[in-house]
Amino acid sequence: MAATPWLLLLCLSLAAGGAEPGILTWASSAPGVLQARAQPDSNGFISIDCGLQGEEGYVDTATKLSYYPDTGFTDGAGTCRNISADYIMPSLCKCLYTVRSFPAGAENCYTLRSLVPGLKYLIRAKFMYGNYDALRRPPVFDLHIGVNHWHTVNISKPHVEKSVEAILLVPDDFVQVCLINTGAGTPFMSSLELRPLKKTIYPQVTAAQGLLLSERINFGQIDENNVIRYPDDTHDRIWTPVVSSGTYTGVSTTSKVIPDSLFEVPTAVMQTAMKPRNVSSGISLSWDPEPQPNNPSPGYIIIMHFSELEFLLFNVTR
Ligand SMILES: *[C@@H]1O[C@H](CO)[C@@H](O)[C@H](O)[C@H]1NC(C)=O
Ligand SMILES: *[C@@H]1O[C@H](CO)[C@@H](O)[C@H](O)[C@H]1NC(C)=O
Ligand SMILES: *[C@@H]1O[C@H](CO)[C@@H](O)[C@H](O)[C@H]1NC(C)=O
């Protein structure tokens, strides 16, 4: 696979108007017991809990997706470690309780198999140091997808959960995610997820160019903890809630919002929106560029999603 240039993606959902507020809740289920397997599930999803010991997986309470140990995905290198109990909170995803660390070797890879060549995939890796090695020194290391530099993982604090995400066209029936030791500590990983996308969505993604996620925001949420992902988002994109305050106010509807076919933003995301309190003012958005050592001046694309949530008079447009 040749080196792929990355564009950074800012994904925002905006809308206008409002009706009654609606809150989405997730049901939870008792954890199940699943056998380890290195195959995509019936959705084509691969969900790996790195460093999980034993052969058995479990069902994640929030998404009801099955997570599996990483034994079938690595070449056997690395060691399973638990994060320190000091960092295990009720709200913490179980997928972050353990890590696989790679004290030996300059490069260690995970191989995700049984993919469809030429299809677009979302790949997400999560890292939480949690002082698993009792050194109180989070490492800095590089992450590659195939031969492409993906991200320099640099987690400043043990409690910080770092998630990195890419959308790319995978040319083969497998893809490798590799951790590169750059001499600044032992690389580790907490969780690795792969989600297939349709060929038609994210037209910016081609064989020659991938997207790296900067932010994916769901405006107008009333509950700052209401993260929307699978099953509301069939592709399991994670939408970070932002509650309106100050010069903005939230609006929402309980009516179904038909998703557009290019991005398939879930109804639950499009049902909430923000608008300025003062109808004469606009909405102003900003972000800080995140230069990487190999990409000192990254290019960004911003995708905004709008839906009209209010019934407007026949002679009014917005
Ligand atoms: C991690 O924690 C689990 C459950 O508490 C325990 O069974 C296991 O032995 C621990 N693993 C290590 C490497 O300490
Ligand atoms: C990691 O981040 C810290 C601050 O967040 C910075 O000072 C340091 O230079 C970074 N390390 C590397 C190797 O990029
Ligand atoms: C609303 O914004 C307009 C234009 O910026 C300004 O002239 C007006 O004073 C604002 N109204 C209120 C109530 O703040």
Automatic annotation (TrEMBL):
Organism domain of life: Eukaryota
Coiled coil: none
Membrane topology reported for the UniProt record: Single-pass membrane protein
InterPro entries, alphabetized: Malectin-like_Carb-bd_dom
Residues of the signal peptide: 1-19
Record's keyword annotation contains Cytoplasm: no
Protein name: Malectin-like domain-containing protein
Main localization of the protein described in the UniProt heading: membrane
Cellular localisation: Membrane
Record's keyword annotation contains Nucleus: no
Record's keyword terms, sorted: Signal
Domain Malectin-like: 48-311
Pfam families reported for this sequence: Malectin_like
